[in-house]
Amino acid sequence: MPEDITFNQPIIKYHNGAFIDQSDDIATEFPLTLYVNQQEFATIVCSPTNLEELVLGFLASEGVIFRRADIQNIHLDDSKGFCHITLNREIEQHYGQYTKRMISSCCGKSRQFYFVNDAATSKVSMTETKITAQEIFSMMDALQEQSTDFKQTGGLHNAAISDGKDFYIHRSDIGRHNALDKLFGYCIEKRIPIRDKVLIFSGRISSEILIKASKIGVGIILSKSAPTDLAIKLADDLNITAVGFIRNETFNIYSHPERVI
Fold first, then answer.
1. Which residues are catalytic (predicted)?
2. For a tag on the chain, would you pick the N or C end, based on fewer CB atoms within 10 A?
């Protein structure tokens, strides 16, 4: 397994009419294949850090596990890029359901879901957390300060979990979903309640990111970038406050503004 989240690559840089021999820090890409109960389940292309957290968060967000105790054994084979997980039970859902597209509402939830499993595992937020405008700016500034790997490579997504004042954990990954799964996995491992927490994210709030936030269980998501229309519709339906374009002392609230005071 690659040891670092970045590696140093010789490059030729063109600058002011001249070619210059230099080196550049490049984000490392690592495929990790998961076997659940001896069956191949998924391959995650990720940054090679905090892999057990990534596995826990991914399996929880897919509805395969609900708590750490659902796993009897987890074995990471870093040298070959495999992770073998043995559960204390059989997987209840059929593998095909994870990517089966739906064309109507499911389980009484939003009609905006594309996949059956997303509708089954997403949660309507019940959080009563409220945050101030200044706390929003402070959390985004703190995420920017933590994002040293992004500053090196320009090729990583960054995310953090906060109680509105202090960070609990910050994670980076080449995959935006992976960064969130690592946070989720950390909270599962440490048994940290999530419902009252805030998710801070560096990238665009797409429908996939909003659904991932819902699966994690947070009620507020903050981003320095924009949301998509489908993400806003999902945020409305799932009772999630989505705040975007947090920069230069401004931000936009796209859904459930009552949590921002």
1. 107 (cysteine persulfide intermediate)
2. C
Q: Is 107 a catalytic residue?
A: yes
The first and second tokens of residue 255, run together, are: 């859904």
Domain extents in the chain: 30-121, 133-259
Condensed to tens digits (0 to 9), the pLDDT of residues 187-222 reads 999 999 888 999 999 889 999 999 999 999 999 999
- Residue 126 CB neighbours (<10 A): 10
Dig out the tokens for 51 from the structure: 């892999």
pTM score of the predicted model: 0.84
Which residue among 46, 83, 107, 187 is the active-site one? 107
Decide which of 3.30.1490.20, 3.10.20.10, 1.20.1250.20, 3.30.420.40 is the CATH code for 30-121. 3.10.20.10
Nearest to 170 by CA among 147, 192, 151, 153: 147
